[in-house]
Write a structure and sequence with these properties.
Elements lengths: L4 E2 L4 E2 L6 E2 L4 E3 L4 E2 L4 E4 L13 E3 L4 E2 L4 E4 L3 E3 L4 E2 L4 E3 L1 E3 L12 E4 L2 E3 L4 E2 L4 E2 L4 E2 L4 E2 L4 E2 L7 E4 L4 E5 L3
Parallel strand pairs: 1-4, 2-5, 3-6, 4-7, 5-8, 6-9, 7-10, 9-12, 10-15, 11-16, 12-17, 15-18, 16-19, 17-20, 19-21
Antiparallel strand pairs: 13-14, 21-22
Amino acid sequence: MRFARFGSGTVLCFPPAALFGENGIQVGKDTLIGPYVSLSAGMLPGQELISDAIVTIGDRCLIGRQSSIVGHFEITIGNDVYFGPNVYVTDQNHSVDDPATPIGKQSAGEKPVTIGDGSWLGANVVVLPGVTIGRHVAVGAGSIVTSDLPDHAVAVGNPARVIRIAND
């Protein structure tokens, strides 16, 4: 296996969309990664990585079809996390600071992303760099998460806003 870790009972459905930097991707046990999912660690295939834990996906997760997890620095997804289809998570963004340089060549830097145990991200959710989503958080379909969400939150919108805190 080319992955840093690939747990027992885990399934990577065929076909993947993009898959590279597997030596920087750790996947726990009994996780289902749907078809057409993109998983990447680093900027390009074959790049030397800073660690073997650029992207970490926990146990018993479900990564919905056509989702993308694009890690350059550190993305940590806890145990029992569910993604609907077409969820996008990244720890890197672009800058617009230099008007003479194409935006795609300007980096705003990498900031770690964490998604807590037991959370659920609905279809078409986008999670941006530097965000921590707490434990047992529900993020509504189509939401864009630009800032941290506390444990047990229900969040929706663009940008995602907490509309309720569920009881323990």
